[in-house]
Amino acid sequence: MKAIVCKQYGSPEVLQWQHVEKPVPKDNEILIKIHTTTVTSADCRVRGLNTPKGFRLLMRLALGINRPRQAILGSELAGTVAAIGANVSRFQVGDPVFAFTDTRMGCYAEYTCLPEKGAIVRKPANLSFAEAAALSFGGTTALHFLRKAKLQSGDKILINGASGGVGTAAVQLAKHFGAEVTGVCSTTNLALVKSLGADHVIDYTQEDFTQQNTTYHVILDTTGHVSYAHCKAALKAGGRLVLVAASLPEMLAIPWGAMTGNKRLITGVAFGDAKALSFLANLALKGKYRPVIDRCFPFEQIVAAHRYVDSGRKQGNVVITRSS
Questions:
Q1: CB neighbours (10 Å) of residue 306?
Q2: Enoyl reductase (ER) domain spans which residues (predicted)?
Q3: Any idea where the domains of the chain sit in the sequence?
Q4: What is the pLDDT of residue 69?
C-alpha cells in the first residue's frame, strides 16, 4: 500500500510517498481503509520538532533521537472497516468509523490496524468523512482541558486562539456546558468565532484582553503565546489559566503558584479515548458540535498541507482526502 513517511525531522519536504506492507489485523484488531485524515498542529510539531520551550530533548527521547520511530504520521482518520480479527465483536466489515490514534499515529496511509477497544467510534450519520476525521484531535483536547478546569454553567471563559482546531472545538463545547464565552482571534476570524456561539469576540490585533476590566473564571490558551504572569490579573479569585501548550518553565511553576495564590495554572497532556469520541459523536449527531474545516488537500499535496498548517493561518482543521 502507499503511505506518506517521515524519515527525518525537518520542514514539510521531508514527507515522502513510499510503498509499505499492508497491515493484517490481529485477533483483537480491525483493519480500516482510510478515506480521510488531517494535518494537526501536533503532526507538525512531531515532524519539525517544534516544541514548547524546554521540551525538545524530551520529545526526541519519546519519539526518536534522530528520526521519528513511527515514520507514518497522522493521528486522526475516518474510513471504513475493511477486515476484522477473529475476536472482534464491536465492529463489522463495512462499518463507517472515525478514530484517534494519538501518539501511535499511522494515519497517513491507505490502511491501518487498530485495537478494537481503542479510540474508534462509528461515524455519525450526519457528518461527512472529512468532518468525522476532524472530530478527534481538537475535540478531545478541548474536552479534556475544559473538564480539567471544572468549567461550570454560568462561568465566564475566555478562549485565546478561538479560531484554530482546538479553539473552535472549545468555543462550541464551552457553550454546550453553559458558559459565557469570549473568543480571541484575528480580524479575519471574528465572524467565524461568533458563528460558533461565542457571546463576545476580541480582535487581538486591536486589543489586549489582559488590559481590559473584565475578569474570567477560566482562561484557556491554545496558542502557547501567553503566560501565567501575563494573564493573572484577568482571572477572578479562584480562576484557572489553562495552557494547552505550556513550556517546561510554566509547568515547573505550577506547584509554586498553588502555594502562593488563589488562582491556578492548569496544563498537561490530553489523551482521547473511545468514551470521549462517543461524547463528541453524540453531540455531533444532535447538531450541537461540528468540526470546522478550513481546507481539504488531496494526499498528493501533503507537503503543501503541512506548509499551510505551519503558517499558523488555518481556521479550524485541515483535512487530507484520498481519491479512492
A1: 26
A2: 10-320
A3: 2-136+272-321, 138-266
A4: 84
| Cα–Cα distance, 164 to 68 (Å, whole number) | 26
Q: Which helix (H) or strand (E) holds 305?
A: helix 302-310
**pLDDT confidence band for 247 (50 / 70 / 90):** low
What angle, rounded to 10 degrees, do the helices at 41-48 and 302-310 form? 100
Contacts of 256 (CB under 8 A, 6+ apart): none
The three cell numbers locating residue 198: 461565542
Q: Tell me if domain 2-136+272-321 and domain 138-266 are identical in fold.
A: no
Distance CA 236, CA 273 (A): 32
How many whole angstroms separate alpha carbon 318 and alpha carbon 305? 7
Digit-coded pLDDT (tens) for 188-246: 999 999 999 999 999 999 999 999 889 999 999 999 888 888 888 999 999 999 999 75
Tell me which DSSP letter residue 146 carries. Answer: H
pLDDT for residue 236: 95
Q: Spell out the residues 6+ positions from residue 247 whose beta carbon is closer than 8 angstroms to its own.
A: 52, 53, 54, 55, 224
CATH topology of domain 2-136+272-321: Quinone Oxidoreductase; Chain A, domain 1 (3.90.180)
Q: What cell was used for 80?
A: 471504513
The dihedral built from the CA positions of residue 5, 96, 319 and 57, taken in this order, carries a sign that is negative
Backbone angles phi, psi at 254, to 5 degrees: -60, -50
- Class of the CATH-defined domain 138-266: alpha beta
Task: Report whether 287 contacts 165 (CB < 8 A).
Answer: no
Spell out the residues 6+ positions from residue 206 whose beta carbon is closer than 8 angstroms to its own: 187
Q: Is the pLDDT of residue 259 over 50?
A: no
If phi over 0 gives left and psi between -120 and 50 gives alpha, with beta otherwise, what is residue 93?
Answer: beta
253: pLDDT strictly greater than 60: no
Q: What type of residue is 14? A: V
Whole-angstrom Cα distance, residue 82 to residue 24?
10
Per the confidence metrics, is the pTM higher than 0.85? yes
| Nearest Cα to Cα of residue 100 among 273, 255, 270, 313 | 273
